[in-house]
Design brief:
By secondary structure, the chain is mainly alpha-helical. The chain has 2 domains: 16-117, Orthogonal Bundle (Rna Polymerase Sigma Factor, Chain: A), CATH 1.10.1740.10; 124-200, Arc Repressor Mutant, subunit A (Orthogonal Bundle). The chain has helices spanning 15-36, 40-62, 65-81, 93-120, 131-148, 153-164, 169-176, 180-200. α1 packs across α2 (40-62), α3 packs across α4 and α6 (153-164) crosses α8. The radius of gyration is 25 Å and the shape is elongated.
Length: 201
């Protein structure tokens, strides 16, 4: 019977493979260092190397392709802005990127859950079954219109287009000729202020 010590339980990579991995690790660390100094060409190469990993992590956590793509772009911007904070002694560039991607994806999920809860708290259309229902509906609409007037112009337009016009966020951004990120931010703040106004009323 062959002793267990005759061979390693987990075979090590071939020397050539280990050498290639070490070279790639060093190359990426150098690209991060150059990116921290503002080298856009270096970051372009770093982007190509890390984008598939970052997107894969975000997609597994967020489970929504469109949202994962948006989160991935946010992570890549974060990698660019925080390149100076990378420390090779704490892990590889791949591990650093994967950690940032996972954290941002988790934050995205939490934000989406919070957004949906706020949306669920907004007044829902009522079925008109009796004359008094019409009076109640008119009163509710009056309150909503009054609260909408308390929002900023962009907040009001974004909320109205998305929740009363039935448009998606990208469609709202296109309709208002405003960056998607700005539209999302204004909708979030607008909904929060709208809810506060309705609850206070």
């Amino acid at each position: 019977m062959t002793a267990m010590t005759d061979r390693p339980a987990c075979p090590l990579p071939e020397p050539g493979v280990r050498e290639e991995r070490a070279k790639e690790t060093a190359r990426l660390a150098q690209l991060v260092q150059r990116s921290a100094g503002g080298d856009r060409d270096a970051f372009s190469r770093l982007y190509d190397a890390l984008a598939p990993l970052v997107h894969g992590v975000c997609l597994r956590v967020v489970a929504d392709r469109s949202l994962a793509e948006e989160t991935s772009q946010e992570v890549m911007v974060q990698l660019w802005s925080q390149a100076g904070g990378y420390r090779a002694e704490l892990g590889s560039v791949f591990a650093w990127a994967a950690t940032l991607a996972h954290r941002r994806a988790v934050d995205t999920v939490r934000s989406e859950v919070s957004r949906r809860r706020r949306e669920a708290a907004l007044p829902q259309p009522m079925d008109l079954e009796a004359p008094e229902d019409g009076v109640l509906l008119e009163e509710e609409e009056r309150r909503v219109r009054g609260c909408l007037d308390t929002l900023t112009g962009l907040e009001r337009e974004s909320v109205v287009q998305a929740y009363y016009g039935g448009l998606s966020y990208p469609q709202v951004a296109e309709r208002l000729a405003t960056p998607l990120g700005t539209v999302k931010s204004r909708i979030r703040s607008g909904l929060a202020r709208l809810r506060g106004c309705l609850e206070a009323g």
